[in-house]
Amino acid sequence: MKLSRRWNKFWIGFAPGIMLPLTVFILIYFISYSKTPFVIFIKFIYMSQMLPKILSLCAVSNFAIFYLFLNKEYWYATRGVIAATLLFALGVGITLFLV
Predict the structure, then answer these.
(1) pTM of the predicted model, to two decimals?
(2) Average pLDDT, integer, range 47-52
């Protein structure tokens, strides 16, 4: 199996497309609010209506993975990143509706 076929899978794009925004979210917590307990941090950003903005910022990090797979012409992996980004966009939409 060629290297390009091995990495050209939907889940190869979907998994990092989910993990990278979550990692960015955790980095935002540790950089800005590390002295605050995590549950209090979640409540604070929800009550202050910052949650949709922070989730959007986290989803933007998928551009790097998207362009990497796009330049390698890994079309199925690129679709996985798009699906993960749309999932985060749905989360942002839901939080906008709830807040």
Answers:
(1) 0.83
(2) 87
